Amino acid sequence: MPSPQRVGTLGELRAAVANGGVAHRPVKDEIRQNLMRKLRAGETLFPGIVGYDDSVVPQLVNAILSRHNFILLGLRGQAKSRILRSLQGLLDDAIPVVPGCEINDDPLSPVCSACRARVAEEGDAMPVGWLPRASRYVEKLATPDVTIADIVGDVDPIKAARGGLQLSSDLTMHYGLLPRANRGVFAINELPDLAGKIQVGLFNILQEGDVQIKGYPIRLPLDVMLVFTANPEDYTARGKIITPLKDRIGSEIRTHYPATRAIAISITSQEAWTDRQTEGVSVQVPDYIREIVEEVAFQARADKKVDKRSGVSQRMSITSLENVISNAERRALAACENLAVPRVTDVYAALPSITGKFELEYEGELKGADAVARDLVRAAVANVFNGAFEGVDSRTIVDWFDAGGALQLADTAPAAEVVKQARKVNGLLALATRVLPPGDQPAPLTASAVDFVLEGLYSMKKIARSDERGYHGADSAPGPRRGPRPAEQMFDDNMPMPGKKKYFN
Ligand SMILES: [Zn+2]
Predict the structure, then answer these.
(1) Burial class of 475 by CB neighbour count within 10 A (0 to 12, 13 to 18, 19+)
(2) Judging by DSSP bridges, how do beta strands 185-189 and 137-141 pair with one another?
(3) CA of 103 to the centre of ligand 1 (A)
(4) Which of 97, 232, 293, 392 could make an SS bond with 73 (beta carbons 3.0 to 4.6 A apart)?
(5) Closest Cα to residue 244, out of 211, 200, 195, 208?
(6) What is the Å distance from ligand 1's center to 354 Cα?
(7) Model pTM?
(8) Neighbours of ion ligand 1 (CB under 5 A)
(9) Distance 110 CA to ligand 1 centre (A)
């Protein structure tokens, strides 16, 4: 997009607009025109928005081309706010304004009395300011305590008295967020939480270009693109949105969660902080860990214990992957390893980054968030394990455990120790290495793959796991049993083992 020729005075601006050097149009036309340029050039329209190319983006483009105010309807963590913020990228680099005007008045057709007076007085010599695009996007989260003064503004009786003005003069006005967004984009998140009175104010400005404040009609013909977000159920609930305002919202666009695990992985890869190298510890995340982290969210969205109306944010996958990696770093540091490779066990350790990201139904409340989250992780592991080892025979491993074998492995067990223990189990290492790249691999990678197989078999209920005995046969009765020594005795007492497995089958 070519930068507008920077002009310094109103006279220069008039000339520049006349010869086409500076574009002059309402904000919705400006956004429309810039979008059309990007479409023609085949540019990315909404950078960082993944998985919406065939669903949300075309509808969004149509809304903008139609010069609509629009609303994004979707559950939490569906990139609604990010889409709205990205509208900034469709604004001109800068627009000419009357310097010092609180509502960014157009020097060629100012709205406020002060600017009109100034233009009349100074004429073509009046200086012109330039407002950058980043200052033209205003966002507000609606809450029930937001007032008309916050959004539209208030009249200031003291100002009126001092200036000998009528209260209905805009010179007495203390402007709210919407007028300050004049000639830009005003975004209101969670529109249904906005009081009806303020919705009426918004509607009046959209419809008539004026608004009543404390009973005084104030003329305010603003040039604003209004965009909103809402939870779909709140939005359609009767009485939450006043009908005339709803009628003035040109397009309703539904957002959604990632349609596939692959799309979800690419979103999380983009957003999560995974590229870490501190204190000589580097990080390598196996693909199956990324898959499991995403699958937890997919399982949660399908689980009847989880509230569907509020949804499960994509931020759950993002924060849990970060926490999963951190648990691997913690283990690597304790074991003096320089490669941190997350294990499935680390996904369980990441529960604190999972439990806050969904609301529970009554049945889930009874169970507790931790128990629900553990079940989700277990179901996710089973799902990914099935995909990775489809048709692969794990019988020799299961037989070893059924014959009384047991492995006690803490989630902090050093990689070498995990590999050493794994050698005891016939077929375990051979199976584990199937998910690794060919050739010799560093011990932390092999240990992670071993953990994946053990956790996979546990998630499928083919083997069991308990605090006391670690992994053991699924059919074995609780309590002391004959056969190999109990796990505690198999375990080297000198090995660091700050945290044992906490989960029961
Ligand atoms: Zn002004």
Answers:
(1) exposed
(2) parallel
(3) 6
(4) 232
(5) 200
(6) 49
(7) 0.84
(8) 101, 105, 112, 115
(9) 6
Q: Record the tokens describing residue 404, joined without a space.
A: 């009384």
Residue 10 Cα to ligand 1 midpoint, Å, equals: 14
Q: How far is CA 77 from CA 283, 309, 336, 343, in A?
A: 26, 13, 37, 26
**In this structure, are residues 474 and 505 in contact, taking their beta carbons and an 8 Å threshold?**
yes
* Distance from C-alpha of 388 to C-alpha of 330, rounded to nearest angstrom: 27
- Residue 436 CA to ligand 1 centre (angstroms): 65
pLDDT at 257 (0 to 100)? 95
pLDDT at 4: 54
- Token duo for residue 360: 């529970």
| pLDDT at res. 411 | 82
What token pair was written down for 173? 């006005």
Intervals of the chain under pLDDT 70: 1-5, 160, 165, 167-168, 475-505
Structure tokens at 188: 């209101």
What's the one-letter identity of residue 427?
Answer: G
Burial of 434 (0-12, 13-18, 19+ CB in 10 A): exposed
User: What tokens were used for 379?
Assistant: 């179901």
Ramachandran region, residue 440 (left: φ > 0; alpha: ψ -120 to 50; beta: rest):
beta
Tens of pLDDT, residue by residue over 147-173, are: 988 998 888 777 767 777 676 677 778
Identify any residues that bridge with 500 across adjacent strands, giving them in sequence order.
none
